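Narrative of activities, Objective 1.

The group set out to show that a structural description can be obtained from nothing but a protein's sequence at a throughput compatible with the screening campaign. Below is one input-output pair from the validation batch, recorded exactly as produced.
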Amino acid sequence: MPSARETELLEAAYRYVLTHGLADVSLRPLAAAIGSSTRVLLYLFDSKEGLVRALLARARADELALLSDIGTGPGVVERLWAWLSAPAHRPLLTLWLEAYARSLVEPDGPWAGFARATVDDWLEVLKAAQPSDVRDTAEGLAWRTRELALLRGALLDLLATGEVERTTAALSAVRE
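Output recorded for this entry:
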């Protein structure tokens, strides 16, 4: 169980990386920004990689909290998109995208498994939204995969352009 100080510093570091990104984070500026020292961070998290793993776990906890609040049944994709496209969530989603991409190009680093785990998380949410007679079929898996691909593609465009109306219209057009 983490100490109160470890939790406090992890939350401060998480707020920092939501604003500044994670890929090129350096311990010295991070420590200064959160009122700590590199020695304390290394003591609490063992290494920079340990801190990165802890930050990714923290980001995934936010993602899982979102997914648990989305609910099931009809309209789940629309509810997911409403959450994904909300401006308040851009920092988390930008961090998610950065971690997702890094886990693909550095599969053995602290990012290891992050992309795969998030795919599995989202597929499970979409599975729970399906009728029970479809969930465990090849068609059900194909539907979930398509919906996830559409959401991710629209999210990438949204993060790149900020064009909520266009990306929302694209997702709506697919459903008509």
